[in-house]
């Protein structure tokens, strides 16, 4: 597929994700980690306008100069108008205006991509594609948060399908120790944090062929897992106490029965479904309770050819750190990954919300250990 | 006008206030004191449904049982579904659904009011009218906050008119001391906090015939009023320091010139306009700087026949306290006023946002001393 | 008694209060409203050094120039050394150094007072006496807080005696309405907030001859007073919920029995003792539950000749506001009272911790409505 | 040296560290990371009483049953007396009482150690030695914080000597890549987090022979290092902005000159001294600005035989994670290290405050990335 076609396809998918929404759903920001859907739609557009159109298209006329500080990831002050705003406080630009902005930039981009694009700009455009795909995943998880924390529990879409459960019996797959190659080594797109293929030395390890199910996690809950500090990191235990956590996000215990909010609405909990929406702290505590551990990201990368993956982001034991020789690209693009390499954990795999073909075996996702609103899961190792 | 006609008129005005809004403007809550417009529309409807229709209309079918905890002033937990929500996080019910809710309740109410209404219910219905009128004022001030804190500074309506400035020269009117009658003593509606007409003894005082203008307040600013702790209460000074306050709300100093956000959009500051959007702390500091003081609510009530009032809520020196013999009505209606009688200041008069005929000379409005989003102003006394 | 003798007597009493303390007790500050005892000893000394000695004694040599910002009520930055400190973080100056500071200033003051003192300075010295007496009361309440919140519950002194309980049966004393004189009108010392004797008009009222006892308050607790929002101000109810309040300060329910920390150590609660250490919120809620109310400060002042008072500070319904004609003295002394006249409630009477002859019938004490560490109590009115 | 002698020597050194203190210095806790010196003295004593004496000495009589929740690392509620306390709020037990507690436990411990001690208890006693040595380091850094944040800048001791500066010219030492052995492999004491000697694969690297000096860091400051977000992690940049950081801890810019608080008091900054008291965020930003990076803990362990170390704790790029095969010991002792293995960075080496022979080449110290009150430093790698 050529660049312009690819552009159209990816841009359209963002809007398809939002089709089931009411206008009001585009606007709210219930917690700081969630962004309003209209912000995602505007911000991904701002990326193409700012990094491709404005520097490279002669006489390009900015859609609205004020959008620069509405849709920039970091709100800045412009001139003397110092106004501190949170994304969820902004009723304007309206959803209609955001769609007009998208149409305006899309037209200019398709024009631009239909001509010859020099290689270094192609690279930047492809980065824009991947950037938009990351926001597509966030759109879905943020929409779930917005609807799932509304006391009316609205359904996103009756057509939404969560994963097909793998019914094969779980086994542990053994790997011998020694030197392994880690990191991306292809010619297609990858993020800078995957680069620098290099050798690591691993001890022998075993890893589960399956992800943990709701049923297995219920055993942890029923065995008092949330009440016993021995299974938890000190910070995890603080998090449990402070936030009165006693189950995964979106679980509700009503009249003696477990329910679970899904994009299909509030449902009785299905025991054989794959567990999701747990923090790293919970993943670690569950593994401790099992007498096992989480895999490192290197173990995962070596083992992943031997099992199915891709329906949950899998917490690893690894901290998000630079690979040997990592260096940031100069300029704004260089801010993409490197500056987040502290206090976060690596997740591997992909989730039901990840756009098709967006992830790969070397892909390094990362979140703070207390976050749960992504479609996260647990794979045990020992 | 009969009750049903009055009902229709008042209910319609709430919707007229919202006519210029985009759907998105109905949803957001930028600070805790501001409520989303759709919440005001729903909450005033919930009042009639809860206190009139449900207890008094045979076989009345609630519009939606969940609205009870969405539109109640105090979010409560329902059964086992403990979900803490802030009003600004709720994208649902949608604006359309809220208007459907209004139409549904209006139909039932008009039916109810078209038959004979017993006197004690008439009283409750009239309380509902006044309740809705108070929310009409809040609708306007909240809408101003929502639009005026948006970096795009959207105009509410080009037709909006702020007050006609009184151009008469200000004078001080003298009143002799002695015993005066205070409080409501009529047969029309009043709030319980105005009741109990009683005598107070006042010292002789003088009060200004006019409200303070922007120009006079600019003198205070230019004389370093925000930098000199001597003019301020200790708590006022903390408030100035902590929040870096250096002008009234909605004022912006851009490129050496003062601008002011109004419901007509961002405008250059008009020096002769009546000052508005200042806190009690600022009103007190300004009076101190002038070598004067604010009137007490009793002085104001005695003097108000001698000057024009009604375009700004006027901060008084009085704390909001019960009149002699005040007692709360039993039940939920009794929560209306009495429970707020601590740590608040009385404001007298009415503002440009107050519905016609809603206020009167004995009316006691009240807010915390740091709040500025209402159309507040200053009248000096000595 | 001459000024020098009076000075010695008052200064000595501050040190006598601290005699039972360990050095460590002088240092800590468990909450922001409590100051370390050594700070009180230093601050009262700094007052005499700053306002009497430095401006009036030729060649007076400051004890330590740094003490100015250690013992000033408002920590300020000195030159370029910007260090934000809390009083409880300061291990130095040591307790020994503070006593040396007191001895040094005392010697200079006694020399100064032994000569002729001009009238305006006499006034300032007498203000210093009253200032130190106010800190003597704070010393006792702060020491009680420091020891009473230590898990070892140390005894302050076995000799400490709380009040003798008045065993006369409580009655309600009736007062007729009309004009009464309020405020100080003598030639002795009073604070500026009592000045301006003036007339007020009161409605007829009744007031209790006795303060509320522990027993009566236990009835409120046992009747669910802390669980029923109807008795509380909205802010009081928030305070109860947020801080999980279910009894007066220093009460502990241990193994089915009520205990109470006193300056004699932890004791079983004596039911006939006068209730103390309750907030205004609690006083109001208790009165509501009784179907009565708190007196205003004017009612209290008129009625106080008819009952015994002086063992508890009695919460009134009145907000702390200026009397007619109140004006602040120029300079630092003017900061004494006026700047606190917002968001506080007036207390009348005196407590077991108040130095003898410090209070009087026109004395206006004031605290924020949530505070409980003073020896506060309740007198009912209706 | 036998166990009893070793015990005496180590216990005595804790008290020697405190010899220069005033009683008041033992009591305060200016920030949550700092503990009052008397708490360290009590807590290390509580360790021996709780884990050695109470379970193993027949008829041992606890010194004071209440000390259990005063000196436990985690304050717990005892029975019905639920009192939440912070360490810095506790004036009791007094310093004298804490020394009595030490003497009492020391006598019992010396008796116990003079008889035959079974091997598993010997291990626990040696853990107690190392535990006390860790608190000796904390005693020094906490005392520095207490005195260095006092506006009087008291001297700890004129005899205190910071490090001798290595005057050799810095060079970069090269190491080839390949497989290396990491972790403790001896028969002496080590912590559980060093255990599991294992192989790692390293890329070739270079590491500096010297630590960064004040002078080099001043270049970073003067080049605007604290004003350029490009050098910082996103969280580091937030930390700089929120806390208005513009220099290492204890540096003060007074009248155009840099000063530095040391345990000898406030001094002019010595440019050739080894930089200390910087956070990981600052270490990372400095390395970025240099175009270099921090070493990993594995690189450091391999290289450390080739340079002098031991005067500063050296921040590494490595997150604090378990070594392969790590498992927690059962019971309270197992809480020692494992539960902290999230969101912290590894520091290697030892500082001027580390007791002699306490550290070693495999020692893994760890702190949160924002902390600066330890004697931390920077060694560059590339």
TrEMBL record, chains A, B, C, D:
Q: Which Pfam families match?
A: DinB_2 (PF12867), FGE-sulfatase (PF03781)
User: Domain named DinB-like: which ranges?
Assistant: 8-137
Q: Does the keyword Oxidoreductase apply?
A: yes
Named in its record, the pathway it takes part in is:
Amino-acid biosynthesis; ergothioneine biosynthesis
Q: Which InterPro entries match?
A: CTDL_fold, DinB-like, EgtB, Sulfatase_Mod_Factor_Kinase, SUMF_dom, SUMF_sf
Q: Give the record's keywords alphabetically.
A: Iron, Oxidoreductase
* Domain of life according to the entry: Bacteria
**What biological process terms from GO does the record include?**
ergothioneine biosynthetic process
**For the Sulfatase-modifying factor enzyme-like domain, which residue ranges apply?**
170-319
Keyword presence, tRNA processing: no
Q: Which Gene3D superfamilies match?
A: paralog of FGE (formylglycine-generating enzyme)
Q: What is this protein called?
A: Ergothioneine biosynthesis protein EgtB
